[in-house]
Structure formats: structure tokens, C-alpha cells
Write a structure and sequence with these properties.
Its EC number is 3.5.1.1. It comes from Leuconostoc fallax. It catalyses: L-asparagine + H2O = L-aspartate + NH4(+). By secondary structure, the chain is an alpha/beta fold. It contains nine helices and 16 strands. It has two domains: 185 residues, Rossmann fold; 114 residues, Rossmann fold. Strands 4-1-5-6-7-8-11-12 form an eight-stranded mixed beta sheet, sandwiched between helices. Strands 13-14-15-16 form a four-stranded parallel beta sheet, with helices on both faces. A hairpin with a 5-residue loop joins β2 and β3. The mean pLDDT is 97. The structure holds asparagine. Asparagine (ASN) binds next to loops.
């Protein structure tokens, strides 16, 4: 059996933490995964790098860019797969960023934990082992970035954190789970359509995400237009609708050539123009807002960042954001 080398990049998160005597969870100086005894497939060896040791709330696009650059390099270093350990709070964003920018066939697997190393029922080591299994399995190649926790494999494109504390927190509401791990097998349930990948060089853009609500007025949108924003994501109502006042605010932003991207604040489903009245999706789109069809607000923000860094504007930007 040929030897398979897996690159492991630790970035921090609960998987690298422990609880103190009061039960408060804190960062460990030494990542508990480093000394842990784990069962890895027979022909697999690990090359481990501690790239960061951060809670994932401290991770932003600048850190994602560092990971992106390391993974681009790793692609020509003879690895059979890559595992990234990460805090779960922003794990879906790092996974989506890498999935949208890396044109790499190698399996890239992100994992994390909901319970730290010394908590009862800690899930870190188990998820770490599972991620190594998935990353060293040939079936995992060419599937884009994968997220593995709790015996499930999710596609970065659709996965989201659904629960504050439950270990079964990751779900893919639109597509469903992409694969499962059993004691002896890794079973993929479907293939996704090909991803649209663009490179990234610069992440210094200011793109806030705003959530719509009943009675939203346009004031905040107009105030934002006076700041240095490069675009805005609005988590709109239902299939992508807003109050009349918010719709007027959107027109104001668009008149100042600020891209406005609409997603839904609903947890599941696809945002698309349906209603033709003031604030309805049809009129928002007619005014120039862009519907980012199948992704949530935090992912749309990264996608707009990547699109703008690739100098996409107008129709090309719209097409890119609408690509499934
Ligand atoms: N479960 C976790 O990893 C949550 C933690 N706050 C983090 O994202 O770093």
C-alpha cells in the first residue's frame, strides 16, 4: 500500500481548547491534538503545522488568505489530502472561502469540536480521526472543500452551523448531508455540480451584512452609503423581499454605485425574485440589486469580496453571485 501523507493545519477553536476548574473553556497553550493518541489508517502519515491558535471569532478573511496561500503551496508538495482544524463559529466561512478560491482536486477537510479536550463527551479527537479518514480516501478528491463532524460529510457550499451547543450542529439545509462515515466505510450520497472558482489576492474590502425585519426603515442604509463600504449584503425577508422604506434605501445605495446583494434571512431555501410590488424581489432586482441564490449572508459576503477582487462588475458580478 503506497504511503499517503496528509497535511494537518491547526488553527485553534474548541477542538484545541480545554475547560478550567469552573467549567469555563479557554485556549490551551499546547494543542491537545498534538500529543493525543489517535487511530489513523495504516498507510497514512501526518505532517502537522500549527498555523494559528485562535478562537474562530478571531479569524477573518486575512487569516483565510494565509490558509489559502499555504494550501496552494501544499498542492504541489505531494500530499494526498489536507485537514484543517478550526473553531466551529466561523468554520463554514473559512470552508466556503477556500472552496470558492482553490482550484484543487486534493481532498481538503475542515473539522472542529463542540466540546473541548477534557469535557465529558468531548468530540474533538473523534472528529479529528474522521477528518483524517475522509482526507485520505480517494473518493473525497474533486469534491471541493468538505466539512466533517459527527460522522457526517458536508459540502462547504451548503453547510452551516445550526445549533449553539449540540455536537450535531452542522447541517446542509438545502442539499442535505453529502456523505456519512460508518465504522468501516465512507459513503458519498451525491455529487455536486462543478464549482466556480476564482483566485483571491486582496481581502481588504468593507462589506457589512444587515438583517431585514418587520418595519425596517431605510435610514441605516442611507447612513451606510455615506461610509466607505464596497458593497452590502441584506438578509431579506422570505424569498428576498423588503419593506417599502428599506427598498427606498436600497435604491439610494444603488444610485451611489454600491453593490447590494440580497439573500434570505430564512434558514432554508433559495432567494429569488417573486413579488412585483415596492420592496418585492422583482422590483429590487429591477432596481439593480443582485440575488445570491443559494447561500446565506455570511457566505454571500465572502463571495462578493472574491468577485470584487476579480474586478467583476454589473452583469458578470450578477452571474457570479447567482451561480449555484
Ligand atoms: N465550538 C467552537 O469551536 C466554538 C468556539 N467559540 C470557536 O469557534 O472557536
Amino acid at each position: 500500500m503506497a504511503n499517503k501523507k496528509i497535511l494537518v493545519l491547526h488553527t485553534g477553536g474548541t477542538i484545541a481548547m480545554h475547560q478550567d476548574g469552573d467549567g469555563d473553556v479557554e485556549t490551551s497553550e499546547e494543542n491537545p491534538l498534538i500529543q493525543a493518541i489517535i487511530k489513523i489508517p495504516q498507510n497514512v502519515t501526518l505532517q502537522v503545522e500549527n498555523i494559528f491558535n485562535l478562537p474562530s471569532e478571531h479569524i477573518g478573511p486575512k487569516h483565510m488568505l494565509v490558509l489559502y496561500q499555504r494550501l496552494l503551496k501544499a498542492n504541489s508538495e505531494g500530499f494526498a489530502g489536507i485537514v484543517v482544524t478550526h473553531g466551529t463559529d466561523t468554520l463554514e466561512e473559512t470552508a466556503f472561502f477556500l472552496d470558492s478560491t482553490l482550484d484543487i482536486e486534493l481532498p481538503i477537510v475542515l473539522t472542529g469540536a463542540m466540546r473541548s479536550a477534557n469535557e465529558l463527551g468531548s468530540d474533538g479527537l473523534y472528529n479529528y480521526e474522521s477528518a483524517i479518514r475522509v482526507a485520505s480516501d480517494e473518493q473525497s478528491s474533486g469534491r471541493g472543500v468538505l466539512v466533517v463532524l459527527n460522522d457526517e460529510i458536508h459540502a462547504a457550499r451548503f453547510v452551516t452551523k445550526t445549533h449553539t451547543t449540540n455536537i450535531a450542529t452542522f447541517g446542509s439545509p438545502i442539499s442535505g448531508v453529502m456523505g456519512i462515515l460508518t465504522k468501516r466505510q465512507i459513503i458519498y450520497l451525491y455529487n455536486l455540480p462543478k464549482r466556480h472558482v476564482l483566485p483571491i489576492h486582496n481581502v481588504n474590502r468593507n462589506i457589512p451584512v444587515l438583517k431585514a425585519y418587520a418595519g425596517m426603515d431605510g435610514q441605516l442604509l442611507e447612513l451606510l452609503a455615506a461610509t466607505n463600504i464596497d458593497g452590502i449584503i441584506i438578509e431579506a425577508l422570505g424569498a428576498g423581499n423588503l419593506s417599502r422604506e428599506a427598498a427606498t434605501g436600497v435604491s439610494y445605495l444603488l444610485s451611489r454605485h454600491i453593490p447590494v446583494v440580497i439573500v434570505s434571512r430564512s434558514f432554508n431555501g433559495v432567494a429569488e425574485p417573486v413579488y412585483d410590488y415596492l420592496g418585492g424581489g422583482v422590483q429590487l432586482e429591477r432596481a439593480g440589486a443582485i440575488f445570491a441564490t443559494s447561500i446565506n449572508g455570511q457566505k454571500a459576503r465572502l463571495k462578493l469580496l472574491i468577485g470584487l477582487d476579480n474586478h467583476l462588475i454589473d452583469e458578470r458580478l450578477r452571474k457570479y453571485l447567482q451561480t449555484f
